[in-house]
Write a structure and sequence with these properties.
The complex is a heterodimer of chains A (97) and B (469). Chain A is built from three helices and two strands. In chain A, 34% of the residues lie in helices and 4% in strands. Chain A has a domain of 45 residues: Histone, subunit A. By secondary structure, chain B is α/β, with parallel strands linked by helices. Chain B has a single domain, classed as Amidase signature (AS) domain (Amidase signature (AS) enzymes). Helices cover 38% and strands 13% of the residues of chain B. At the A-B interface, helix 1 and helix 2 of A face helix 9, helix 10, helix 11, helix 12 and helix 13 of B.
Chain lengths: 97, 469
Amino acid sequence: MTEISREQLLHVAHLARLELREDEIARLESQLNDILAAVSKVSELDLADVTPTSHPLDVVNVWGADEPRPCLSVEEALANAPARDGDFFAVPPGGAS
Amino acid sequence: MIDTLRLSAEEATRLLRDKEVSSAELYTAYRAAIDERDPELHCFLHVCEDGDGEGIPIALKDVIGTKGIPTTAGSRILEGYVPVYDATVTERCKARGLRIIGKTNTDEFAMGSSTENSAYGPTRNPWDPSRVPGGSGGGSAAAVAAGLAPWALGSDTGGSIKQPAALCGNVGLRPTYGTVSRYGVVAFASSLDQVGPVARTVRDCALLYSLIAGRDPCDTTTVELPAPVVLPDRDDLDGVRVGVPREFNEHDAIEPGVRAAVERAIELCRELGAEVGECSLPRSVEYGMPCYYLIAPAEASSNLARYDGVRYGYRTPDPADRLDMYKRTRDEGFGDEPKRRILVGTYALSAGYYDAFYGQAQKVRTVLAREHAEAFERFDVLVSPTSPTVAFPFGAKTENPVAMYLSDLLTIPSCMAGLPGLNVPCGLSEGLPVGLQLIGPQFAENALFRVGYALEQAVGFDPVPERYR
């Protein structure tokens, strides 16, 4: 059975851009292992010949009409910005990724 | 005197048309009910002072975007967020004159089965305030049950309309995938999310569905309804083939009182003229929950990547750099359940695990869809309990995520297959509502309404919680 280690948990958290606090890590590690144990049940079935379903309807590509129409103004687009600089969203400089 | 606990939306619409009440009087009556009962129940995260419009009120789950009205999805990360545009369903409600009375409580990002995951505190069940209303749409279901709105919209990914409707004793429809636009609705798992109506009667539910359904160019997954919505009016079930899937009706998790009420409803189907037969969907219940709790978190981990503190919503104070901003914003802004799902989803999609988890779950999804399709070769609708239990006490499942996930055991399989499902109250167990789940093939909403309506008349369930009568 798959077990997630503390190291893996921190790696996945980094991929998901979550800075977990120390008190969260122990709790989440045990809960995630419970969840993974439950969902691992899907591997019991032999489905080598089954086509995967990514979407419940058989839809084909849908195109929108290529016509200009009204969109949000700059003010509207920035209305909820935590920080702005003129007509831009303001963010701090990047860090190591 | 307007009795908001008993007035149906249909009757309210008639009173309005015949000028027996005004739109403002109706709005005031529901606002008074909110003032009286919502301090205890906490159905609403935001109450509108004056919803524009000339029609009857409606409550919207707080994942549905409303221009100029705060929309939080039950999350701290969206605290203070005020959309600058309406969701298509909001627009459609407004176009029909419906007045938005408020935004209802939900588990954070619609992730949960009890509303206990709301960052703003849980909603209480109007039948017994020491118990949960179900979730994630517990706010909408409880508001309708308590007469705080004649009807409401919810959203359903794995049972978030049907299960709270079951626990609060009202009618809730999860429509066929693709029939109702999600444009402007906070996304959780895009191959599953559907918006749908919650109401006190089947006819109200059908009416509200007819107002919101249909193709929307802004949501490319939507289609036109193949046939118009028919408001049900037949008391019989002549010629209807009702299937009783064993695995959905005999599961160990189903409480005896729930089972008894559902068995009586199935017997009523027979008496009303339906042809009732047993069937088996051997893998749908057993593998539905594990399949769902891989696919929904995988999609959620992608959808929730947008909450990064840049364009809207919460941003951590004084970040050291951009990476620090992303990570601390998301740690501080998300509660435990979205974090769990983001982590499970990211893990299931990561290199080395993708095939075993996400890929395998997508194949299981095909199996579930096929099992349902085969059953619908013989039957028009399938029946089962909606929830294995009646409303449970607060805190009963909060420490154990997997136990909470099992609340959706019976609602999940048909969601995975994109099928419509209707909850209709079918009785009480221990003084709490029991919900019957009706599942149909794609676009079979009219069949569900017909069966739901005939049963509603035959069962004679009183949707007003005993403590308010």
